[in-house]
Amino acid sequence: MSNGWASAEGDGCAAPGAGGWRVPSMLAALLLIVIAGISGCERQQQSRKGGGGPPPVTVARPVVKDIVEMDEFTGRFDAVGSVEVRARVGGYLDSVHFKDGALVKEGDLLFVIDRRPFKAVLDQAESSQAAAQTRFDLSKVELERAERLVKSGAGTEQALDQRRQQFLSAQADLAGAKASLEQSRLNYEFTEIRAPISGRISRKLVTEGNLVNANTTMLTTIVTTDPIYFYFDIDERSFLTYQRLAQLGTTNTNGGGKSLSVQVMLTDEKAYSREGTLDFTDNRVDSATGSMRLRASLPNKDLFLTPGLFGRIAVPGSPRYRGVMLPDEAILADLDRRYVYVVGPDGSVKQQPVRLGSRTDNYRVIREGLTGQETVVINGLQRVRLGGGKVTPQPIELPPVWKGLMALGPPPGAPGGAGGPPGGAKK
User: What is the pTM of this model?
Assistant: First the structure.
């Protein structure tokens, strides 16, 4: 014991001088670990700056081929024909002869109104017509007799005029009786309500036993199913483009000549699956919205398309020309500017502004900025800045139809990807 401090030889404490303070051995070890960690971080940063080389990226030349730019619009399907089924005569509904939502053909029996009152009226009209026919026949015979008497001098002109008046009156009564009989027969037939068109019928809106008013009560509706219309609106600029294409003699939007082919897809589809023709353009631009209403006609043999569904339509918006295309994944945005990364022969990278067009074969058309001979970064865009303006290009060839980055495999530098060791082996 000395000065209240314990001292032992070989305890790992360093003495600054005789009787001085001693630093514990654990504190010295901790200082060495911190110093070693700082040195390791400095070496790692230096390795990142100059020892790893430019980062690998996937590059390719744009797809260059003959294309027709397609303009896309949203619209709604509608039936070619639609009918609200109503009764032509009033009465109590007796029976219903269809299933809700079924397909019906023109002339199929749908509803029957109680026919007994109309049958009674029809029988009465037939009797009235028979009586009128009898009176007409009698007046005709008496008129012929009066004419013979006048010719022989046994009859007077006054009697002849009376017989002629009776004949004409009976003739008019007979014509009225025939018209009444025809009306009664029609009303009797109207008690059977039949499908005016072929198509898909809705549900019955009136059940049996209810009173049906003539020309007022709607019983159900029927819409045609094949073909089917697709209505959509376009802006004024697109309308002018289509008008100029029509002047070239290649398309026609209002019937006659060559119809414009279009493609349509539903909201749950990723690609255009159905084809149709543009067959109607409205006769004026809507002054309130500046849009024009167009219509396409599509076959619907499988009856899958239903009136009221939304969809998207692709309309040819340009003549056929040699186009330059890139996938959307290779295009970046800076506010309202669009650009791509172009790689030079020495691996240097620069931004190239581009002007975009529509989508074709899942590619984005590049209208301005590229000629098709450039080498563009497709995958690994986030590594371009890390390389300090240089990259290690891994060239590929883009397919005719783009199927997404997943079709290219793992990104550059990833295990098994372009720019990484084969099989994901560690270097």
Answer: 0.66
